[in-house]
Amino acid sequence: MILASSSPRRRELLTQIGVHFRIQAADIDETPLADEGAVAYVERMALEKARKVAEEHPQEVVLGSDTSVIFSGEILGKPVNNREAEETLQRLSGQTHQVLSAVAVVKGDREKVISVATEVTFRSLSDEEIARYVATGEPADKAGSYGIQGMGAILVAGISGSYSNVVGLPLTETAALLNEFDVPVWHTEEL
């Protein structure tokens, strides 16, 4: 199987469930289309990533994924700088937002995409806490400007849904999807 992503979090999550894979990141335009809803956006991104790599490897199973943070109907991407990260965290402080991931699997002319949503509630954060967290550098490459699997865990008061989805790949649903394409999980033998 090929993972069409360079995300270290997706790599770790797939390894955690015993999936053997290699990586070939897909370079695509990730700009949302005009009036495109969040579910349509993440599903399109996941499919485009998987399809792009599958074009070069039509006999192999390719997994593409995309994760976005949604707040008040707006897709919150990765911050362009520290100021934007601080502004995003101020907006999320004391509020509930949604983490939405899509997972697409493509092999030849066969493809399937699913999406999973998780509700995440932040505790109220002071401006000083936000500045200190942003100064760690962790928010820089993360949708919504935080990583629940890292130092950002202390920002979160609670979640409703899949924890692994918030990290970047909903494992239960991904394993079921891979099973449909005969990709084994819990694989223990070395290749």
UniProtKB/TrEMBL annotation:
<protein>
    <recommendedName>
        <fullName>dTTP/UTP pyrophosphatase</fullName>
        <ecNumber>3.6.1.9</ecNumber>
    </recommendedName>
</protein>
<comment type="function">
    <text>Nucleoside triphosphate pyrophosphatase that hydrolyzes dTTP and UTP. May have a dual role in cell division arrest and in preventing the incorporation of modified nucleotides into cellular nucleic acids.</text>
</comment>
<comment type="similarity">
    <text>Belongs to the Maf family. YhdE subfamily.</text>
</comment>
<comment type="similarity">
    <text>Belongs to the Maf family. YceF subfamily.</text>
</comment>
<keyword id="KW-0963">Cytoplasm</keyword>
<dbReference type="InterPro" id="IPR029001">
    <property type="entry name" value="ITPase-like_fam"/>
</dbReference>
<keyword id="KW-0378">Hydrolase</keyword>
<dbReference type="GO" id="GO:0009117">
    <property type="term" value="P:nucleotide metabolic process"/>
</dbReference>
<comment type="function">
    <text>Nucleoside triphosphate pyrophosphatase that hydrolyzes 7-methyl-GTP (m(7)GTP). May have a dual role in cell division arrest and in preventing the incorporation of modified nucleotides into cellular nucleic acids.</text>
</comment>
<dbReference type="Pfam" id="PF02545">
    <property type="entry name" value="Maf"/>
</dbReference>
<keyword id="KW-0546">Nucleotide metabolism</keyword>
<feature type="site" description="Important for substrate specificity">
    <location>
        <position position="67"/>
    </location>
</feature>
<feature type="site" description="Important for substrate specificity">
    <location>
        <position position="149"/>
    </location>
</feature>
<dbReference type="GO" id="GO:0036218">
    <property type="term" value="F:dTTP diphosphatase activity"/>
</dbReference>
<feature type="active site" description="Proton acceptor">
    <location>
        <position position="66"/>
    </location>
</feature>
<dbReference type="InterPro" id="IPR003697">
    <property type="entry name" value="Maf-like"/>
</dbReference>
<dbReference type="GO" id="GO:0036221">
    <property type="term" value="F:UTP diphosphatase activity"/>
</dbReference>
<feature type="site" description="Important for substrate specificity">
    <location>
        <position position="9"/>
    </location>
</feature>
<dbReference type="GO" id="GO:0005737">
    <property type="term" value="C:cytoplasm"/>
</dbReference>
